[in-house]
Amino acid sequence: PTGLVPVAQCSALGSSVALFTTATPTGEPAPVAEFLRRYPEISAVCLSTADAREAVMLTAADANASVDPARGWLEPGVSTPADRLEVSLGRYFEARLPRWERVVAFPELIELGDVAADAVAVATNTLAAARRKRPRLPHRREAVTALRALDPADIGQVLADVQAGRLAGDALLGRLSALAEAIAS
């Protein structure tokens, strides 16, 4: 974009960030939004001063106007804090790391007992915990209601098939899509 000097492209875990230097790293959301539309393989743009003391990370969402429930419409880039370059990049990539705590209940599947029974037990416990939640937001209430329609045996079968190597890639996505569509109908 005009006024920005390209420096590098940083990638980690499927996220690519284009790094540009600029005199002031704030106030550039329109050219960043255009750049991100033109290069969809780039996840975010980091605007940094040449000395790397002030940098801002902008995703496509940050580079466009947004609405905040409490503050109303926000201008592009308003909610993006400036920080040192290493902090801005580190924070961005840290947020994209897999959340392993979400699968912490799965170790028993790896130890190969009765995989199908273990998978159903894990799915039953996980769904029960999610179903006990009492969210206040309407869309979250709808999600919990949808979870009540989900059969733990179906999830357990998917887990067992993945563990056994019978289900992966497009077939896995198709199976999960079919489960989601069954809930929606």
Characterization of the model:
With 185 residues, the protein is α+β, with helices and mostly antiparallel strands. It is 44% helix and 17% strand. The chain is built from seven helices and six strands, in the order ββαββββαααααα. The protein has a four-stranded mixed beta sheet, with helices on both faces. Strands 5-6 form a two-stranded antiparallel sheet. Strand 3 (44-48) and strand 4 (55-59) form a beta hairpin. The longest helix has 17 residues, at 115-131. The mean pLDDT is 81.
Helix fraction by DSSP (H/I, runs of at least 4)? 40-55%
Q: For this entry, what is the oligomeric state of its chains?
A: single chain
- The fraction of residues in strands falls at 15-25%
| Residue runs with pLDDT of under 50 for 5 or more positions | none
Total number of strands: 6
List the helices and strands in order.
EEHEEEEHHHHHH
Estimate the mean pLDDT confidence: 81
Question: For the CA atoms, what is the radius of gyration?
Answer: 22 Å
The shape, in one word, is elongated
Major pleated sheet: 4 strands, mixed
Number of helices: 7
Distance between the termini: 46 Å
Helix/strand class: alpha+beta
Give the neighbour order of strands across the main sheet. 1-2-3-4
